[in-house]
Design a protein that fits this description.
The complex is a heterodimer of chains A (380) and B (275). Chain A has 17 helices and 15 strands. With 380 residues, chain A is an alpha/beta fold. Chain A has three domains: 31 residues; 100 residues, no CATH class; 237 residues, no CATH class. Chain A has a six-stranded mixed beta sheet. Chain A is globular and about 95 Å long. Chain B folds into two domains: 52 residues; 219 residues, MetI-like fold. Helix content of chain B is 81%, strand content 0%. Chain B is built from ten helices and no strands. Classes of the chains: A alpha/beta (380), B mainly alpha (275).
């Protein structure tokens, strides 16, 4: 009996060791040929086209219309649109300063009530854009393209191509919340946010943070907001922030335009809201910069990417909260035309420009590269 | 006047002690004021308290930046310092190689001065940072930032060398001439030694400007990181304690390089018989 047990143990040991060895050898054999990293550099989105043309980089990832611009000018071709990397990933959001929400403007007006009205105009503008995009023969589509040209300073063809790759939406639905949770977790794993910052901000965990950092009150109160005959805040305009030429944030431009509503009033004015551009130079260069302006108390409500909105709120305790979505997807990895780059795998040893490591675009590139089993490294 | 060397040393130490003490007190007061300001902002939840972290948190970040790789970049502070130093060194060499001969030429010959002066005066007031987008695209991300640094170092060196050449006392030249020195001897034995201290002043000023430029140059686009890149990167994600750590590193590197330049200056002037 004892002997049998001994045999059994010996046999089991041999089986385990040999199968482990087999697995090791087999996987060793299966090891694909050596993988090289994908390299990245950071530069402003407006410099990317030039750097691609000069051969300084092999590709870039940027928000629209910068991808479409390089594609239409035959400098680059799209490798992958961001929706293919992470379907319906959140991108730009509408963020309010919590200091503004608490502001008493007098006469029964508060920052919160003005934000409700602002969000209402944002909803209407977004719906108008979605409808316009649905019917390209409509006069509204023509107007939308015209507004896009005004806002971005790019040609009609570029704007139309960019619009084709846009998904506008205001709702903070399940997909949106999951996307925000996903991004936050990726920032913590990637080291952009250290875990103790959650506690410093008074959040129990990522879910608690996402729950508290997205305030749906204003979207929910939408039906109760009525048009106003007069401007309610003539002396205290809402100072709005947005990124220069970022077509993701077109809704505020649409809401500021007087022809969209068909009348003499803009959508903001229809709801009694007086707005003023917080940036003196027609928009901020990046989301991180806009968050700095929030911290400095120069912006009341702003459009920006959710990455900086999350990172700077958690890392630096900037007083902000997400009140609506602006768009999902809408970024692309664009690579040098005719360079034989047809898949993420072909990006090995190539250099891709990102706007900054604090952006959605960086996260998307990292995700795409890692999903392919490759490493993303800074170009040295 | 006493000749007792012990007493002299003692006196020197005493003098220096007050200086050391004052330096320590000055830094301590600075850090204390910083801490109080940070505490004030944090206690009141100002909304920008994250931008002014506590000095202790910055110290911790400083240590961590050397110990751990940044997960996104795969680099430690050592790598960033190496990258920045390499840029400074290359920029420095380029600036010296062009500025010194040019300065000697323009300082010596009126015609060379007439040719070079207008261009120099026109370009000099333009901040090197204004060239960044052009340099990055035209010269690329490797040489673009180096060129920015070179430009920053170039003008102080050039102007100081020119000034040095012009400041050579005519009596010295006359004396050398009377003693039978030819042109090249006069240049080597009179003009060059006389100009060296001015050159070194230019170098020290230039290095300071070089560090100021490197930060901005690395912020725009570069290969291989760098302390300036680190500062921009950490500021973008809002990790400001790390940003301050990067700033401290830049400050220390600046002191270090000008210190080295000062040492070389001392050696040179002793070697050339100026001191």
């Amino acid at each position: 009996m004892e002997r049998n047990v001994l045999y059994a143990i010996v046999v089991a040991a041999i089986v385990i060791v040999s199968s482990a060895a087999a697995v090791y050898v087999l996987t060793g054999d299966d090891e694909p040929k050596e993988k090289y990293p994908v390299y990245f550099v950071t530069m402003g989105v407006s410099s990317m086209k030039g750097a691609l043309a000069s051969g300084e980089i092999d590709g870039f990832i940027a928000w629209e219309p910068f991808g479409s611009e390089a594609i239409l000018e035959d400098l680059g071709e799209p490798l992958i649109w961001s929706g293919e990397i992470m379907p319906n990933h959140p991108c730009c959001v509408v963020v309010a300063s919590t200091d503004y929400l608490e502001l008493d403007l007098g006469g029964g007006l508060t920052g919160a009530s003005m934000t409700s009205r602002f969000v209402k105009a944002h909803i209407e503008a977004t719906s108008w854009m979605v409808d316009a995009l649905d019917d390209k023969d409509s006069a509204n589509y023509t107007l939308l393209v015209e507004l896009g040209v005004q806002f971005t300073g790019k040609s009609e063809a570029i704007v139309e191509s960019a619009l084709d790759h846009m998904k506008y939406g205001y709702e903070m639905d399940q997909t949106f919340m999951e996307g925000i949770t996903n991004f936050t977790e990726m920032f913590i794993v990637g080291g952009a946010i250290s875990e103790d910052k959650l506690a410093i901000g008074g959040y129990e965990d990522v879910d608690d943070f996402v729950d508290q950092y997205t305030n749906e009150t204003f979207l929910d109160a939408e039906s109760a907001v009525q048009p106003s005959d007069v401007i309610l805040n003539p002396d205290d305009p809402v100072r709005i922030g947005f990124l220069k030429s970022d077509i993701h944030e077109l809704a505020q431009w649409v809401a500021q335009n007087t022809t969209v509503g068909g009348g003499a009033k803009s959508l903001f004015e229809t709801y009694g809201v007086n707005v003023v551009n917080a940036s003196a130079v027609g928009g901020y260069a990046s989301g991180p910069e806009e968050m700095d302006k929030f911290a400095a108390g120069e912006v009341d409500i702003g459009y920006l990417g959710c990455a900086p909105a999350i990172q700077k709120h958690l890392n630096a305790q900037v007083h902000t909260v997400i009140v609506a979505q602006a768009n999902s997807e809408g970024s692309a990895i664009v690579v040098e035309a005719d360079a034989g780059i047809e898949s993420i795998d072909d990006l090995q040893n190539k250099t891709i420009a990102v706007p900054s490591t604090g952006t959605i675009q960086f996260v998307l590139l990292k995700r795409a590269v890692n999903d392919e089993g490759l490493e993303l490294k800074l170009k040295t | 006047m006493t000749n007792d060397p012990l007493k002299a040393l003692n006196k020197k130490l005493k003098d220096n002690w007050t200086q050391y003490l004052l330096a320590v007190i000055s830094i301590a007061v600075f850090i204390a004021a910083w801490h109080l300001y940070a505490a004030y902002l944090h206690e009141n939840d100002s909304g920008y308290q994250g931008y002014i972290p506590y000095p202790l948190d910055v110290a911790e970040a400083l240590v961590d930046s050397f110990r751990y790789e940044d997960p996104n970049l795969g680099l430690t502070m050592f790598d960033h310092i190496a990258a920045s130093l390499e840029r400074i060194l290359l920029g420095f060499v380029i600036a010296i190689v062009i500025a010194v001969p040019l300065g000697l030429l323009m300082g010596t010959f009126r015609k060379a001065d007439a040719v070079g002066r207008p261009i120099v005066e026109l370009i000099r007031p333009i901040p090197p940072l204004a060239w960044i987008p052009i340099f990055i695209v035209v010269l690329g991300m490797l040489w673009g930032p180096v060129a920015i640094v070179a430009l920053g170092i170039f003008f102080p060196v050039l102007l100081n060398v020119m000034f040095g050449v012009r400041s050579v006392e005519p009596t010295l030249m006359d004396a050398a001439k009377t003693l039978g020195a030819n042109r090249s001897q006069m240049f080597l034995k009179v003009v060059l030694p006389f100009t060296t201290p001015y050159l070194m002043t230019g170098v020290k000023v230039g290095l300071g400007i070089g560090w100021m430029c490197i930060v901005a140059a690395e912020m725009v686009g570069n290969y291989g990181g760098g302390v300036g890149y680190f500062i921009k990167d950490t500021a973008d994600v809002g990790a400001f304690e790390y940003m301050y750590a990067g700033m401290i590193v830049i400050g220390l590197l600046g002191i270090l390089t000008t210190g080295v330049a000062g040492l070389i200056e001392g050696r040179l002037s002793r070697w050339m018989g100026m001191k």
